[in-house]
## 1
Amino acid sequence: MRIAMFFKWDGVTLDQYEQVREKVDWENMNPSAFAYLAAGLGAAVAVVGAGVGIGKLATGALEAMGRQPEMSGGIRTTMIIAAALIEGIALFALVICIILSGK
């Protein structure tokens, strides 16, 4: 009831929301559905975190290259290694999410 009132969905009345809520069998829901939902949310957080981390890494590296162009080779190499480590952690998190969704 509070959700329908808060979001004010177009075309959904409070009575329709209550009818749908009564039809759902909350006590006999399949627990694996929640595992899939948690795995999807975990994967999304892992991917977003990796994207933000690599974005900050690239920003810092490009600013450093702009300040000291003669060091750009070493900075680029360090950036690529760090980006690979971040991607490895993100991939590991995704694998863990997939494994946990299967249990």
Note: The helical segments are 2-7, 14-23, 31-67, 72-101.
## 2
Amino acid sequence: MHTLTVLTGIEPYVVGKPNPNLVTLIMKDQNLSEDKWEKFLMIGDNLYTDIELGFRANISTCMVETGKHWREDIENPEKNIHMSKPTFIMK
């Protein structure tokens, strides 16, 4: 990021997961007001990016057990010290 700033003289605007501004940009692109946010569901297998994005954007989340993280990662207190908990879990 620093290199981009030095080369362009412009501070980059990061919108990748888990930055909640990503959800805001999608909402604006789709002309949806904030009262529609309760209908959004962030689905993903990564607690640190997908589920954290939903948590930061204040939308519901669903973790799918397809690869990155599993139910055991949430239930094991030694593993989940800094993880957001999903609203739902699907196998």
Note: The two ends are 37 Å apart (CA to CA).
